[in-house]
Amino acid sequence: MADDRPWLAAYPEGVPAEITVPDKPxxxxxxxxxxxxxxxxxxxFLGAATTYRELGEQVARAAGALxxxxxxxxxxxxxxxxxxxxxVVAFYAVLRLGAxxxxxxxxxTKDELAQQLADHGARVAVVWQKVAALVEATRDRTSVxxxxxxxxPAALPTLKRLALRLPLAQARRTRADMTAPAPxxxxxxEKLVARAAPIPDGxxxxxxxxxxxxxxxxxxxxxxxxxxxTHRNLAANAEQNRAWVPGLRDGGEVxxxxxxxxxxxxxxxxxxxxVMIGAxxxxxxxxxxxxxxxxxxxxxxxxxxxxxxxxxxxxxEVVKRGADLSSARYAISGAMALxxxxxxxxxxxxxxxxxxxxxxxxxxPITVGNxxxxxxxxxxxxxxxxxxxxxxxxxxxxxxxxxxxxxxELLIQGPQVFSGYWNLPDETxxxxxxxxxxxxxxxxxxxxxxxxxxxxxxxxxxITGGFNVYPxxxxxxxxxxxDVADAAVVGLPSENAGEQxxxxxxxxxxxxxxxxxxxxxxxxxxxxxxxxxxxVIATELPRSMIGKVLRRQVRDNLLAS
Length: 561
Description:
It comes from Catenuloplanes atrovinosus. The chain is α/β, with parallel strands linked by helices.
């Protein structure tokens, strides 16, 4: 092949082949936005507006408060928060100290949180009031010393905050959804930040090569581990995102944060890229089509990152209400395959563009995307981003490339590729190859003009509702049940969530497990999206000659039944 980057011809006008990799930390982007757009609304939370000047001041005070609590460069600080202004402030405050943000899903169970908290060893955790007691209950297994509880209603507009106090059933339900009493030992985030002095100028900030974020993932093996992402990794991916959409206007866009910011997809689009260009970010604590459309009346979106199910549900609500989303010029979908009919409906409703992107936690996350133009190609994940190289390698020997047109494991190289897993050098060596190439675990084919299509999945993870679910984690849990001798977990197609989690279990000797009881037992111990939607009882599981359960055959058997 004369040119090893045939995909460059697919780039729309204005998209560069290479980006200038940032030489400043993420906090410099916030400082620049504060200086350039001080009076522009940075955050909108259900109608409560925070300007960039106010955001900068809050970050400075929060950094001062954390510094007073002893947080120093290199320390890990756990965030267990939904999308809210306090999340954004805490994220940048931790980074300002040269400390490391560790994002956690607030829907996790105690055991799931304890495992991750123990692994990274954070002494300070900034958590939603509703999960503060859960984090408190992990202290006997973790290094957590200080819990700072965030009161979500404190960030609401005054009238909405007062309405929650009304003695009405709806107000009580909303209040219960948003808050709960925190343990007596927990500190109040709001009081800490309000009383704190801004961090002194003499306290050094981070360097571009420092670790900014530990993001937990199953990687390519299914065992949760912390992916180490530096300021350079995350800033580079934000710069790549901006380059991919040359029509974005600094200081002129409205991003919708419906993706959870405890997920790397939400971090990069809604916490780093948005701030880099001085955008207004509309924060929603959870995805709800009605809530999105109510916000759109107040502050119409121009850039809408999401997952396919969001576009389908929101599109249906737009039609139902006769609402207007014509302001949404750009949308990028990730986490699962984007159906062509979803694209067609969304673009008809908005008049804008919806493209599919591809990435992984270990790549900050986006590496490949369809062009943000009418040249996008349905069914393909697109072409490599600027400054990103790809190879298709032999699945058994990643040093050998497959012939052109043949399927191979997708390998990626670029400034967004992580530096390794936290305290796991062997796992790092398994996926991070010489030259900075990372093994994705996905099998792809490339067309002559450089478009990539995923055709298989080596790592066998399940994607449901945009979240990664790792079969081995659920199988290990099910085997702990006294009525279960063995288990295999697979993903089956679902109309509403990409895939649904299905478990096939072999009963323990003399036991007769009840599928409904097993599902309820699993739901008590797993985040809701991980819990099996179906449990099938079987006498045995298909195995290889060496005894390994053949998940693919399990899946094929279920599909054929």
